[in-house]
Amino acid sequence: MSLPKIDSDYLVEFLVKLLNLPSPTGFAEEAVAFVEKEFSAFPQLKLTRTRKGALVATWNGKRSDSPRALTAHVDTLGAMVKEIKPNGRLQLSRIGGLILNGVETEGCWVHTSKGERVRGSYMLNMASGHVYGAKVNETTRTEDAMEVRLDARVSNPKEVRDLGIGVGDFVSFDPRVEVTNGFIRSRHLDDKACVAALATAIKALTETGQSPARTVTFLISNYEEVGHGAATGIPSDVHELVTVDMAAVGEGQESDEFHATLCVKDSGGPYHHGLSQKLRALADENQIPYKVDIYPYYGSDGEAFWRAGGDVAVALIGPGIDASHNYERTHLDSLIATTNWVLAYLLSES
Ligand SMILES: [Zn+2]
User: Fold this and answer.
1) What is the pLDDT of residue 56?
2) How far does the centroid of ligand 1 lie from the alpha carbon of residue 191, in Å?
3) CA-to-CA distance for 108 and 245, rounded, in angstroms?
4) What is the mean pLDDT of residues 321-337?
5) Which residues contact 200 (CB under 8 A, 6 or more apart)?
6) 224 is catalytic
7) pLDDT tens figures, 83-132
8) Mapping DSSP to helix (H, G, I), strand (E, B) and coil, where does residue 116 land?
């Protein structure tokens, strides 16, 4: 059996649009709504929302016994305004595992509670080389050593509050998306790349008039980066859950930007051996380029569901993302491999 052809232009276009929507955890509605709108182009999908705001798409398969689920998340790292400082700058509180020097000097938006956006950039408090000399390099990057410099004439807390800014406002960092020679460079490829892969797989199957072998639920999760995204939203009768999330690339890792990866163990321990073996066999049968790897500092939405009591086999696959939670990069080859793997799984009979 050959896999349906993937529309890689659609994949990249979907991904670039999604990357450009700010969606720090807790403030991901715009991104969820975008995916909901895109999914509504596939009439066979039954779309619902969880009370938590995640998107659930169900597709009736050729068989309804032993239903399956796949999940990917649209929420990303970001921050909240923690404090308006006496000098009119903002101290932030991180959302998720944000790497502070990864966003140093980055442009950002403060999303006010009135729904407006105020522009700024995230700087070291002592940023000027001509004023602070060697200290600029030597300072350890911590939340209290860094601040948002607003692009507004403000020099005290009152002037900042007059802009509508308050403690608890969400802050999103510019994704800086670039596509060059098949490489996609952006913040938050984790996990928007995998949401794009799921959408592309659904499109490919739809266009060839095929249905998944089993009824399948897609959960587009919105609280993954803080650890409890898929704790709810997966139907309790699901037998298997394939988490589609980034693979960790770096020294000592097998994963790279040109293969998809099967993660067999991360910080939460081993994944389900039987389901992992099944995914390996599907990749072998369909000549999908893949690696097998262990991620040292990593947790997934599949584990969130396990911890919440989900009685289900869980496995994890995804594209290799270089410099994850930092200024990330991957290659189209890795995204195509991931999409094909999802397709092979959706079509698999046993
Ligand atoms: Zn992720």
Assistant:
1) 98
2) 5
3) 25
4) 98
5) 6, 7, 8, 10, 11, 14, 339
6) yes
7) 999 999 999 999 999 999 999 999 999 999 999 999 999 999 999 999 99
8) coil
112 CB-near residues (< 8 Å, 6+ apart): 118, 163, 164, 165, 166, 169
> What is the band of 327 on the pLDDT scale with cuts at 50, 70, 90?
very high
Q: Categorize the per-residue pLDDT at 231 as very low, low, confident or very high, splitting at 50, 70 and 90.
A: very high
Q: Give 48's strand partners.
A: 56
Catalytic residue among 224, 257, 303, 328: 224
pLDDT at 233: 97
Taking the centre of ligand 1 as the mean of its atom positions, its distance from the CA of residue 249, in whole angstroms, is: 13
Burial of 306 (0-12, 13-18, 19+ CB in 10 A): buried
Q: What are phi and psi of 318, to 5 degrees?
A: 175, 170
C-alpha 194 to ligand 1 mean position (Å): 9
Q: With 90 as the cut, is the pLDDT of residue 215 above it?
A: yes
The model's pTM: 0.98
Residue 80's beta-bridge partner residues? Answer: 93, 170
Measured in angstroms, how far is the CA atom of residue 110 from the centroid of ligand 1?
A: 23
C-alpha separations of 126 from 92, 104, 131, 136, 189 in Å: 16, 12, 8, 6, 30
The full length of the chain comes to: 350
Phi and psi at 39, nearest 5°, equal -65, -25
CA of 183 to the centre of ligand 1 (A): 19
CA dihedral 244, 298, 224, 28 (to 10 degrees): -90
Could you give the CA distance from residue 100 to residue 145 in angstroms, rounded to a whole number? 10
What's the CA-to-centroid distance between 225 and ligand 1, angstroms? Answer: 7
11 Cα: distance to centroid of ligand 1 (angstroms): 18
pLDDT bin (cut points 50, 70, 90) of residue 340 is: very high
Position 15 scores a pLDDT of 98
Question: For a pLDDT cut of 70, what percent of the chain falls above it?
Answer: 100
Cα angle 318, 320, 324; round to 5: 105
In terms of C-beta distances under 8 Å and separation of at least 24 residues, what long-range contacts does 163-166 make, across chains too? Answer: 163/112, 163/118, 164/112, 164/113, 164/114, 164/116, 164/118, 165/81, 165/84, 165/90, 165/110, 165/112, 165/118, 166/81, 166/84, 166/112, 166/113
For residue 209, what pLDDT is reported?
Answer: 96
